[in-house]
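Dear colleague,

Thank you for sharing your sequence with our group. We've completed the structure prediction you requested, and as agreed, I am returning the results in plain text so they can be pasted directly into your records. Please verify that the sequence below matches your submission; if there's any discrepancy, let me know and we will rerun it promptly.
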Amino acid sequence: MQEFIISIFNVTLNFTYRQVKAPVKILFVCTGNTCRSSMASALARKILEERGRQEIQVSSAGIAAFPGEQASREAVQAMSEMGICLRDHRAARLTPEDVREADLVLTMTAAHRDFIKKLVPQCSEKIFTLAGYAGTGPEDVPDPLGYPLGAYRKCARKLEELIARSLARLDADAGAQINRQVKKE
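Please find the predicted C-alpha cells below.
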C-alpha cells in the first residue's frame, strides 16, 4: 500500500492507494473432465475456501471432453465422502482461450502437458503436470475411469496431497515475486 497526499487549491487530501490484483486463475486438465480434473478443481476450491483464499479461482477442462457430460458416478461418490458435492459438475472441452486466460495450468499427465504446450506454445511457461508443480516428481495421476470406487478414493487422496503442495509452491512463488518487485523499487 502506498499513501498519497494531494494538495489542490489549498485543500489537502490524504488517501491510501491499494493495488488491487486480478484473481489468480488455476486450470486443471485431464482427458474427459469427468474424473481427475473435476475432482481436482473441487478439492482445490474446498482447500482454498477453508484457508479463506478468495483471490484464487479454479476451473477444469478436458482435452477430449464431451461438453455437458456429468462427472462419473464414482467421482461424485468419492467427493461426497470428502464433504464435496460434484453432482452439478458438467464437463468442458479445453480451448486455447482457456489456457491463455489461466495463470497456471496443471495437468494430470505428461501427455496432457505436452499436448497443451503444442496447442498453445506461447503459454508453455505456465503449463505443468500437477505432480511436477507440486515437486513430487514426474509421475502422472492415474486415471481411475473404469475402475471401482476404491481407485477414485485413492486418486482423490493423491489429488488432495498434490494440490496442497501446489498451493504451498504458489504461495512461495508469489512471495519471491513480491520480494523481487520490492528490491526493484
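Summary note from our side: The domain at 28-166 is CATH 3.40.50.2300 (Rossmann fold).

Kind regards,
the structure core
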